[in-house]
Design a protein that fits this description.
alpha/beta; three-stranded parallel sheet; two-stranded parallel sheet; 5 strands
């Protein structure tokens, strides 16, 4: 089972406990995916032994997975003008 949350804040330990409570009877493991990040307590709770395993995927890990798998990502090349290079050639007047 998985839970996906669109957060700009950190996921707290209570949310991981609630998720574990919801999945422990029906699943061997769960994935908690968020556009935010996880508190230290939430990471520790997810890693707690002798409980239903929970994998945490925050925005950084999600982006890494998308890049790794080539999903929704397109490599582009961007060029910028170095205006300082052209300064000596500007017409003064």
């Amino acid at each position: 089972m998985f839970r996906c949350k669109r957060y700009t804040r950190t996921v707290q330990v209570k949310e991981i406990r609630d998720f574990r409570g919801a999945i422990q009877v029906r699943s061997e493991r769960g994935i908690f995916l968020t556009t935010g990040t996880f508190t230290k307590g939430a990471r520790e709770e997810a890693a707690r032994e002798n409980t239903t395993a929970i994998e945490l995927v925050d925005i950084d890990r999600l982006l890494a997975l998308l890049i790794e798998e080539g999903l929704g990502i397109r490599e582009t090349r961007a060029l910028t003008i170095d205006r300082e290079f052209f300064t000596p050639y500007q017409k003064v007047g």
